[in-house]
Amino acid sequence: MKKLLALLVACVFSLNLRAETKADIFNQQVAITWLGLDFSQLVFIGSATQYHDAGTVTNDDLRNKYFPGWNDLVIKEKDKYNIADAVHRTDVSYATEITAKANAKIPDHDFFSTNESDFQKLNEQKIGDLVKKYDFQGKTGIGLMFFVDGMNKSAAKASVWVTFVDMKTKKVLLTEHEIEKSGGFGFRNYWAKSFYNVLITIKSNFKSWE
């Protein structure tokens, strides 16, 4: 009996130590948690004006209204922004408080730029550095998050890094860069279309990333 108990304890301990792998992303039996949209590195190319519902969007508007608004939209319209379908799962967990905390800590600065070269500032190494500093609030398993690093008004496109992480080890398992078209009525929906298009691309390309 003691040997059996020791064996069970050892098995549980080994499971807790097990690190997630890239292969687990494509194993439909492995759970994935949607962590949300991170805007901490966002640069908006152009001015956020001439949107029918928005008028002139300020830095404070982006930080306090639109960042949480875009994250809330993905949750409220789950059937449209179907995270589970994109990653070939029947369902996913949601823990957007992870990115909400990071977005709330973004320091006061100017998100806007007229320099086209600012559209894409991140790369795989920088993504890894950002993830290492992240507070996953004790959660484990595979997390999926989008680092949105660019919105280009003239090109009507957003730059997004689709990033799968091992929340326990703070390791990037896979990150893919996608640039998608925006569109729609009103400032919120116009850029939300980019995130929707990213999900469509994930679903289409998912197997090729394996």
How would you describe what is shown here?
By secondary structure, the protein is α/β, with parallel strands linked by helices. It has one domain (22-209). The chain contains seven helices and seven strands, in the order ααββααβαβαβββα. Strands 1, 2, 3, 4, 5, 6 and 7 form a seven-stranded mixed beta sheet that branches. The protein is globular, with a radius of gyration of 19 Å.
Give the secondary structure arrangement, pairings included.
Elements: H1 2-17, H2 22-25, E1 32-38, E2 43-45, H3 59-76, H4 83-86, E3 93-94, H5 97-104, E4 112-113, H6 124-132, E5 142-152, E6 157-166, E7 171-181, H7 187-205
Descriptors:
210 residues, alpha/beta, 7-stranded mixed sheet, 7 helices, globular, signal
Count of helical stretches: 7
**Silhouette:** globular
Name the poorly predicted regions: 6-15
Mean pLDDT: 90
**Got a strand count?**
7
Largest sheet properties: 7 strands, mixed
Distance between the termini: 43 Å
Helical residue percent band: 25-40%
Q: What sequence of helices (H) and strands (E) makes up the elements? A: HHEEHHEHEHEEEH
Structural Rg: 19 Å
Structural class: alpha/beta
How many domains would you count in the coordinates? 1
Strand content: 15-25%
Summarize it:
It contains seven helices and seven strands; from the N terminus they run ααββααβαβαβββα.
